[in-house]
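Quick one: YeeE/YedE family protein from Maritimibacter dapengensis, structure tokens please.
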Amino acid sequence: MTVIETAFTPWASLIGGLLIGFATVLLMLVRGNVFGATGVLAGFMTPSSSSDWAWRATLIAGMLTGPFAILLFTGGFPVIEVPMSRLAMIVGGFIVGIGVTYGSGCTSGHGVCGLARLSPRSIAATATFMLFSFITVYVIRHVIGG
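--- reply ---
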């Protein structure tokens, strides 16, 4: 049986969380927009105006160039290890896409911005995300034996 280890990265997680929080607050202050990654991408694909497209393109460019910034500061790209098959990731991505569609938002929009605004809909959505995350991890690690 293969054991999946969970990486404990408190400093990287703290810094990443602070950066996400700062970006979220900055976007709300400057543009009045909620930071939801899937909403950003959807608006990029079908923008309502050129200024709407520009901030979304800038944000996406920042996400894509982030690993290069890490390369400049550390001398190496971040190491990403995913203990799942590509098929499992594709199926998982498809399931997340369905959830994002029916949940009217993603974990970043509901979990970061919605909870901060005490949105009842986001509280319910985030509780649902977390519940099914716990169930999925339990089933994969303890029932299926991954």
